[in-house]
Amino acid sequence: MEFSLTPDQRMMQESLSRTLAQASPLERVRAFAGDPSDTGGDVWRAMAEFGLTGIGVPEASGGLGLGLLDAALASEALGAAVAPVPLLGIVLAPIALLRGGSADQQAAWLAKLASGEVQAAVAISETVAGARDGAGVTASGGKLNGKALFVAGGLAADLLVVGDVSGGLHLVAGDAAGLARAFMPGLDETRRLAELTFDDVTAEPLGGGPELLAALRDAAWVLIAADTLGAAQTMLDKAVAYAKERRQFGRVIGSFQAVKHLCAEMAAELEPCRSLVWYAAYAFDAARPGVSGEASLMAAHAKALTCEVGRFVARTATEVHGGMGITDLLGLHFWFKRIGLNRQLLGGPERVREIAARLQGLVAA
Fold it and tell me: Is-contact 338 79, C-beta < 8 A?
């Protein structure tokens, strides 16, 4: 048995990386970060033309019909390029529709999601990571009320998948009456976070119950971990390249034992994360309906470990660069901040480990 990516998966990831190098180079990322009115429409169109917007949509609806492992590889490439692409909505919305949507809901949205005609976002932070500042959404009589925070891609989304405080999930059209959106300033300037306010907003319920919410949480954790993996790998690569060319005391700094150890330790810490992320994605794809124990546990481990290691790599890679590491000219801070947001998005390592402990019966639910 071969435990590795298929040639098609490697080719897809490499092709996406090349597309991102053209559509979203560092200069484009810097422009996006510096202009709150920039929606990144050109990058979105490039992703739609590539087929990324339909990665999890069945072929019958115009998508690619791929699994979470393929989406995780795409997320790794996006993290490596710090691309301003709302992948969580791209991947999670089709999962919600396919596992909990009616035939009419699937017919109304899947093809549009696949083509990139509409964008989606998922608001489940309060149900997964706990409510902050009184946030939380309640559902009654087909109407939603309350507030959802930290919604990645929520400012431009045409379709929202919203979790309520009881664990239910709902579909909300982006132009629904009573829905208000506000920009949430955050650490990461390469992605837009939204605060959504619901005032008697009409919503369509999704089926699936707690199992669907757990599946969305698990998939999101894997995608976030993969994004961190890609960003951390880029920071490591940049640190090694810099150490090979920066000269001090008449020799390149990479020849000094202390710098060698820093680079080696980053590589040693990061490499196990790759296998863990891949296996967590595989476990999600292979999980039987109603049996999500292993998938949930692996997703939690992938999120917690990769985000911890990512922070270590981000700090150490910056140290290898010395004073240059904190300059805007070099741009390392984009990867540094992206890793920082990923660490807390949908639960920090401490919160995720607590959920993992509950899944194993180590602490009371």
Answer: yes
Residue 76, classed as helix, strand or coil, is helix
For residue 17 the two structure tokens come to 């990386």
What are φ and ψ of residue 136, in 5° steps? 145, 145
Q: How far apart are alpha carbons 305 and 336 in whole angstroms?
A: 17
Residue 317 near residue 238 (C-beta atoms within 8 A)? yes
Interatomic CA distance for residues 197 and 55, integer angstroms: 30
pLDDT in tens, 25-53: 999 999 999 999 999 999 999 999 999 99
Quick one: pLDDT at residue 131?
Answer: 79
- Which stretch of DSSP H or E encloses residue 66? none
- Domains of the chain, with CATH numbers? 7-115 (1.10.540.10), 120-207 (2.40.110.10), 210-359 (1.20.140.10)
Q: Which residue in the block uniquely carries the two structure tokens 């809901």?
A: 105
Q: pLDDT digit string (tens) for 263-298?
A: 999 999 999 999 999 999 999 999 865 555 899 999
Instruction: Return the exposure string of 302-317: e unless at least 16 CB atoms fall within 10 Å of the residue's CB, then b.
Output: bbbbbbbbbbebbebb
195-240 pLDDT, tens digit each = 999 999 999 999 988 999 999 999 999 999 999 999 999 999 999 9
CB atoms within 10 A of CB 27: 9
Cα separation, 125 vs 148, in Å, equals 7
List, in sequence order, every residue forming a beta bridge with 198; answer none if it has no partner. Answer: 146, 179
Spatial neighbors of 329 by CB under 8 A, at least 6 apart, are none
Query: How many residues are recorded in the chain?
Result: 365
